[in-house]
Amino acid sequence: MDFFQTLLTTLVIFSVLVIAYLLVTGSGAAKAQKRRLQALRYRHSESVDAKVDAQFKRAVAARRPKAYKIAGSGSRLEALQLRLTRTGKDWTVTQYIYASIGLALAVAVLMFIATKALLLSLGIGLMVGAGLPHLVVGYLIGKRTNEFVSKFPDGIELLVRGLRSGLPVTETLAVVAQEVPGPVGYEFKTVIDRIKVGKTMEDALQDTADKLGIAEFNFFTITLAIQRETGGNLAETLSNLADVLRKRAQMKLKIRAMSSESKASAYIVGSLPFLVFGAIMYINPEYMGGFFSDDRLIVAGLGAGVWMAIGAFIMAKMVSFEI
In the chain, N or C: fewer CB atoms in 10 Å? Predict the structure, then answer.
């Protein structure tokens, strides 16, 4: 089997896996149709709770302009730029692409020097170059999100105290931007800057919510928008929201503690094949040397790596809980 046949076989295996994934997940049109049917069911239901829920959804939808566009939905480059922005770093898409290409080439060259296997070196280089920067960006987003969520109830309580003392909402937001450290103060400062250049408070908050993609801040934005439309005691509403967010954080910690055993099992099962491969490679290098020279074993190894990645993804979804 020459190089081109091996490459063709690898591409066919990868294409089959992608098609199977698309068939399992379903199309976006089917999901949109399901959401519309559910909205109609709520609208014509006789249940009071269903009618209240439908009215709430209509109120949320009505506060957005007709040409509203979800952030990052324009193109893949726009979505990538949004991910880089959520890290809190001043990274650009060009820097990210250059770093990924450089990392892939460096790993491929080092692997080729060590193993003299071109296909294996290219495969590992592409996986590392495409996967490692994505994982780093995801880690930084998760770290900044956790910092934001941990300090956000304190910011809301400071906002409540300012409202109860008689300050207007915009000035209270400026106080939160100055007093609360970390991502919370920075994001509230961006909200104030948008208001100063002429945007309404609802639009400024919505832009920040789209950029962050954090459920807690979306709750805050929706609460302020609906309260300004319906009236009521804003301080009391935000105080209840801060209490709900703290209880939500406590529930997340409980879920993390209860699922820690399953996560440990997933880590052990996922790392065991690599540990066994490394141990056998250390004990008897000639026995495992075929994975670096034989094209058939290289394709088998790459296919096994893809299946391991799919299994790790499934196990991660099984131990991941949303509240």
Answer: C
C-alpha 280/C-alpha 290 separation (Å) is: 13
Virtual torsion, Cα 68, 73, 77, 83, nearest 10 deg: 90
What's the CATH number for 144-249?
A: 1.20.81.30
Contacts of 189 (CB under 8 A, 6+ apart): 177
Buried b (16+ CB within 10 A) or exposed e, 106-131: ebbeebbeebebbbbbbbbbebbbee
What is the C-alpha radius of gyration for the chain, rounded to an integer number of angstroms?
25
The band of 232, judged by pLDDT with boundaries at 50, 70 and 90, is confident
Q: How many other CB atoms sit within 10 Å of the CB of residue 204?
A: 22
- pLDDT-based confidence at 106, cuts 50/70/90? very high
Q: Which tens digit of pLDDT belongs to each residue from 271-317?
A: 888 888 888 888 888 887 777 777 778 788 878 878 887 887 787 77
Residue 66 confidence (pLDDT) above 50: no
Reference 141, options 73, 74, 211; nearest CA is 211
Contact call for residues 119 and 298 (beta carbons, < 8 A):
yes
Q: Which are the contacts of 249, defined by CB distance < 8 A and separation ≥ 6?
A: 149, 150, 153
- Domain parsing of the chain, residue ranges: 1-62, 144-249, 259-323
Alpha carbons 33 and 17: distance in angstroms, whole number: 26
